[in-house]
Structure formats: C-alpha cells, structure tokens
Design brief:
Number of domains: 3
Shape: globular
Order of helices and strands: EHHEHHEEHHHHEEHHHEEEHHEEEHE
Structural class: alpha+beta
Helix content: 25-40%
Distance between the termini: 53 Å
Number of helices: 14
Largest sheet: 5 strands, mixed
Number of strands: 13
Strand content: 15-25%
Radius of gyration: 21 Å
C-alpha cells in the first residue's frame, strides 16, 4: 500500500462545508436537499432554513410546492425515527435500506402497546383509508378509530411502521399536513450505495460517523464498506487517530476563501452528520447546542466553527433573530451576520430583520 493522503483538520472541515454548499452555495434548492440527503422536518422551519443557507437565492414557498402530492420531495420518518425530507430517489435509498432495521424495532415497540386489533390489520385499514385521497390525522382517526388509543400518535406512531415500509408519507406543512398513500415498491437494502451517498455529502468520514448517521450496527456498516472497497480511499487526518475514508478522486480541496457566516437550522444535517462534533463545535460549547430532551439548537457558524446559537420570531414583515453567543463577535462578523440574517429572511418571504444578543 502506498502512502496515505494526509489532510489537516481545516482541510477536512472545508471539504465537508464545500460539499454542503456552505462555501459556494447551490443554485437550486433541490441540489441543496440532495447534498444533505435527509433534512429533518420535525420543525417545519428547518427545511426552508437549512436550504436557504445553502443556496444563492431561494424563492419563498418553494418547499410548500415541493411537499405537495406528486412534488419533488418526500417527507417521511427515516433517520433517527424522525421526520425527514428527501428527494424521491434518496427516500427510496435511505428508507429502502434502513427500513429493514427500523420496522422490526417499531413492531416490537408497538406489541406492548396495542390491544384491540392486530398491527397488520390496522395497517391494512390505514392504507385502505388513504387510497382515495390524503387525510389529516383527525380524518384518518375517524376512519380508523383504533389509532386514537395508540400512545405517542403525536410522534407518528400511528403510521410510522407504514412509513418504514415506504407506503405512507406526509404532504403539506404544519397544521395543513396530511398523510398520503405511496404505491408499493420492492426495494432491497443497498448498504454500499447508501455509504456512497453519505461520503459524497459528508466525506471524508470514519466508519463510526457512518454508523452514527444511519443507526446501522457493525455487520451492516462493514457490509457497506466491503461493497465499496474498490472505490474507497483511505485518508489520514492530522491529529486524529481514526481511519477516514473518501471516495477515490474526491479529495480536491476548495480554494482558501473566507468561510463567512452561516445560520444553520435546528437539527441541521451538518451538525448531525458526524459522531465527533468537535470538527464544528468545541467540546466546551457542545451542551449549548445539544440540549435536554433531544433538542439540537440552530447554530451560528463563523468560519466553519459554531460561535453561537440562534432562534427566530416572525413579527409581521420582520424576523427577529435572538443570538446566544459563545464569545464576543467582532465588527466584521457582526456585519456578515446581519447580511446572512437578511438573506435568510428574504428566502422566507420577509423583507426586514433585526438581530438581538441574549
């Protein structure tokens, strides 16, 4: 074996940020979604914000059209048993591969909670109810009353099993969301292809990173790396003990330009993509991003590092941004923060923005 390519932590950081459109933005929102593979949508604002910070310009409301029946995106339960938006191709890949592991866990969980009817019968009735048209949760529960007795319906436990089988998705946003029937498709798990998609978006990365992102266990992770053995390149990262992997020929580094300021969404895919968060978040700041009850705060990224968290509140034609800084912001970063906040606001259909530090 020849000498391993060696990169610095800064080169690793820039490589991932470049793949994510966080150095040179994408032109099309769908390209940004493809780069993230899966965008958590438990919070409705996460999708438009995660995309807005990765594109040159987003048309307000693009996500509403993309999430309509027959739209370009599919929203369903996938990674970490939570709602994510995917392109239709990535939905088939991600859920088609992970569903074989997620669904048995769901069945086991439900077996101790249902008592009225068998799970198979319940799911058949749900699919029958959704055949004619999408239904809100209230409408679905009227047609299948047994769903009302399931604990955790607010988290999707009434339809999550069908989502893991790629038979149900969600259309619309917020209070307008409805469950939608998906045609049955036979898909075999493709561990190697899922690893390829992950490395295209988040590589170079370790086996532990891929396992963390997918939730797969050792045998499946090893199967994925074995399938791509001829396409992988081992990479050494200075100061890091673990082995990193990249797809062959994908180690070209972006130009040494200023990384600027980016406002990442709550549960942003960048923050969740790696097991070791220290590449973007200092160990001292980790608990300020990862809060109790599984909350992952929206992050202010300055030159590729988390220097604060932020929240927004819409007030008419203005968005107020509350920033909790981990350290004082210099004048240059404050100016860039204002520009980025204004850009995000316009992507959300708002013309004015104000920033407050808390």
């Amino acid at each position: 074996m020849g000498t391993l390519p060696v990169i610095t932590l800064e080169q690793l950081r820039r490589s991932i940020l470049s793949r994510q459109g966080l150095i040179v933005p994408f032109a099309d929102p769908l390209d940004a979604v493809r780069a993230m593979v899966a965008v958590q949508t438990q919070y409705a604002a996460s999708l438009p914000v995660a995309v807005a910070t990765r594109v040159k310009k987003a048309t307000p409301g693009w996500d509403e059209q993309a999430l309509e029946v027959g739209g370009r995106l599919i929203k369903s339960w996938s990674l970490r048993h939570t709602l994510h938006a995917h392109t239709s191709e990535d939905h088939q890949l991600v859920v088609g591969t992970l569903g074989a592991h997620l669904y048995p866990n769901y069945v086991q969980y439900m077996e101790v909670r249902r008592s009225i009817v068998s799970l198979d019968e319940l799911q058949s009735r749900v699919l029958e109810a959704l055949t004619e048209r999408p239904l809100s949760r209230r409408q679905l529960h009227e047609k299948v009353p047994e769903l009302k007795s399931i604990d955790g319906v607010g988290w999707g436990l009434d339809v999550m099993g069908l989502a893991f089988q790629r038979r149900v998705c969600l259309v619309g946003r917020g209070s307008e969301q409805k469950f939608c029937h998906l045609p049955e498709t036979m898909v075999e798990p493709r561990y190697g292809e899922l690893l390829r998609r992950y490395l295209v978006s988040y590589g170079p990365a370790t086996k532990a990173d891929f396992a963390h992102w997918t939730g797969l266990k050792g045998p499946q992770v090893q199967a994925a790396f074995s399938e791509l053995e001829g396409e992988l390149e081992h990479v050494k990262v200075e100061g890091q003990a673990g082995a990193y992997f990249s797809l062959a020929g994908m180690l070209d580094q972006p130009t040494d330009v200023a990384l600027g300021v980016r406002l990442l969404a709550k549960f942003d895919p960048l923050i969740l993509s790696l097991k070791d968060k220290s590449l973007f978040i200092s160990p001292e700041s980790r608990t300020r991003v990862f809060r109790k009850a599984g909350q992952v705060e929206a992050v202010v990224l300055v030159e590729g590092r988390a220097l604060g968290t932020w929240r927004m509140e819409r007030k008419g034609n203005r968005i107020d941004y509350s920033i909790e800084a981990f350290q004082p912001f210099g004048k240059r970063d404050l100016n860039r923060l204002n520009v980025e906040a204004a850009r995000i606001s316009k992507a959300l259909g708002v013309n004015n923005s104000e920033i407050h530090f808390v």
